[in-house]
Design goal:
By secondary structure, the protein is α/β, with parallel strands linked by helices. The protein has six helices and eight strands, in the order αββαβββαβαββαα. It has a single domain, classed as 3-Layer(aba) Sandwich (Uracil-DNA Glycosylase, subunit E), CATH 3.40.470. Strand 2, helix 2 and strand 3 form a beta-alpha-beta unit. Helix 1 runs antiparallel to helix 3 and helix 3 packs across helix 4. The longest helix has 13 residues.
Length: about 160
């Protein structure tokens, strides 16, 4: 009996990732613009990153948030992704751009990819355009550091 195979074979691993790690993922299933944080971002930080994604042409339809630690409803247990899970998620989503928002997330991504990541300078992560922030949320507190963050985000390729 013939099976229904998705027209886009990249959809299969993406859907499997969303099914397995939905408590760590939020936003678009496409994931062309991936934002990685160690814990949930503030509303202000999320809005700033979504606005940056829109300004670069990705918009919400292509933006995915990956939270490495996720608390369940009881607040007594925190599920933390293992390096091999982080690698699998990122590579299955296959983003064009990866934005890492904090020092802990940088360390975890670097461990997962066995890579050295530059902080607050344009870099790549196994072929993905990447920019890493020591503390993106804190950068939003001052106009000078907010502009520095935006100037780094603008180095990511635009989506047409």
């Amino acid at each position: 009996m013939a099976q229904n195979i998705p027209m886009n074979l990249f959809e299969v691993p993406r859907q499997n990732i969303w099914n397995s790690f939905s408590n760590h993922l939020e936003g678009s299933h496409i994931g062309a613009f991936l934002i990685v944080s160690s814990s949930l971002l503030s509303k202000e930080a999320k809005t700033a990153l979504l606005n940056s994604s829109k300004a670069l042409g990705y918009g919400t339809i292509n933006t995915t948030f990956l939270t490495l630690k996720n608390s369940d409803d009881s607040d007594t247990h925190t599920a933390k992704l293992e390096p091999q899970e982080i690698f699998r998620i990122v590579e299955s989503l296959d983003p064009l751009c990866v934005v890492v928002t904090d020092h802990e997330a940088i360390e975890e991504i670097a461990r997962a990819f066995r890579a050295r990541l530059e902080i607050e300078t344009p870099t790549t992560l196994l072929g993905h355009y990447c920019c890493c922030f020591n503390d993106f949320e804190r950068m939003l507190d001052l106009e000078k550091t907010k502009q520095l963050a935006w100037s780094l985000l603008k180095t990511l390729p635009k989506h047409n």
